[in-house]
């Protein structure tokens, strides 16, 4: 849907200079319908959590306990960085391609392929997850993603490749278009970001025991990186260039590679991750 929706909106609004907010009302109505449907389904379906860790400790103590683990803190930062990388890679690509002869409509379709690559990568990752460790998967995808982004930054934009996409040059039609090779490298990053979430989470909460639910809450809060890093990237794109802004993505991938190879190791000692049991005093019991 992340691949289809931007293209659908692009078709609805047509020429950007003449666009009106009412042109995208159909998308908003569909979204409202989906949210309403999900609400009622979630309301009606019981979702038990038989394996959830239960403890009598306060949420404050559990959160502070989770933050004592270095590999979790670094992992929470990693998810902040990851979501920024995931969102920023195709987001700026749409803006960049829209300012080239490729055009806006074709740009959103091309950028949407990134999300389709994520879907394919996630299915492949799910099938290999039981055979390859999270550390190995995150290390490999971070390295490959970094190499692809560096290739996108340093490749001449004059080099073009042929790619299938929709175009609006003579009415909406599907065919082969010429795009800068940089865009192809950016799309391929989707294969890499596809499994980074699961790998990062697995590494971050490993060995946390009773602190895992609270740690998960902290982890989920830091998805805000998906709004902050693209904002920084967009500022660099405005002040320097679109391709120069991808150094934000490159630095993020370097951090993810560091986390996978070094930062994910649990080096915290002396913190109990299980509920302490009250000892039973048997000294006063009478002998039979």
Summarize the structure.
With 288 residues, the chain is mainly α. It contains 11 helices and 2 strands. It folds into 2 domains: 1-44; 58-263, Growth Hormone, Chain: A (Up-down Bundle).
Q: How would you describe this protein?
A:
The structure is a single chain. The protein is built from eleven helices and two strands; from the N terminus they run ααααααββααααα. The protein is mainly alpha-helical and 288 residues long. Strands 1-2 form a two-stranded antiparallel ribbon. The chain is globular, with a radius of gyration of 24 Å. Residues 277-288 have low confidence and may be disordered.
Write the layout of secondary structure elements.
Layout: H1 4-13, H2 25-44, H3 59-66, H4 70-98, H5 104-128, H6 134-154, E1 160-167, E2 173-180, H7 181-193, H8 196-205, H9 212-221, H10 225-239, H11 246-263
Antiparallel strand pairs: 1-2
Helix pairs in contact: 1-5, 3-9, 4-5, 4-7, 4-8, 4-9, 4-10, 4-11, 5-7, 6-7, 6-8, 6-11
């Amino acid at each position: 849907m992340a691949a289809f929706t931007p293209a659908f909106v692009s078709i609805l609004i047509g020429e950007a200079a003449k666009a009106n907010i009412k042109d995208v009302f159909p998308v908003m109505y569909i979204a409202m319908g989906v949210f309403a449907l999900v609400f009622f389904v979630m309301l009606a379906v019981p979702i038990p959590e038989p394996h959830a860790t239960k403890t009598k400790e306060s949420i404050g103590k559990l959160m502070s306990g989770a933050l004592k683990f270095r590999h979790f803190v670094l992992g929470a930062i990693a998810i902040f960085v990851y979501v920024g990388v995931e969102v920023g890679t195709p987001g700026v690509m749409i803006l960049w391609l829209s300012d080239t002869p490729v055009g806006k409509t074709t740009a959103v379709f091309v950028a949407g392929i990134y999300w389709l690559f994520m879907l394919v990568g996630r299915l492949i990752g799910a099938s290999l997850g039981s055979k390859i460790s999270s550390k190995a998967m995150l290390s490999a995808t971070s390295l490959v993603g970094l190499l692809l982004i560096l290739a996108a930054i340093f490749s001449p934009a004059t080099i073009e490749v042929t790619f299938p996409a929709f175009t609006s040059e003579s009415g909406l039609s599907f065919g082969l278009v010429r795009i800068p090779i940089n865009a192809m490298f950016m799309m391929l990053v989707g294969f890499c970001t596809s499994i980074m979430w699961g790998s990062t989470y697995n590494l971050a909460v490993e060995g946390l025991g009773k602190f895992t639910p609270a740690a998960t809450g902290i982890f989920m809060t830091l998805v805000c990186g998906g709004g902050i890093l693209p904002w920084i990237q967009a500022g660099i794109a405005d002040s320097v260039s679109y391709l120069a802004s991808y150094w934000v993505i490159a630095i993020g991938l370097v951090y993810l590679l560091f986390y996978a190879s070094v930062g994910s190791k649990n080096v915290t000692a002396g913190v109990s991750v299980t509920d302490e049991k009250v000892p039973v005093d048997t000294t006063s019991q009478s002998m039979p």
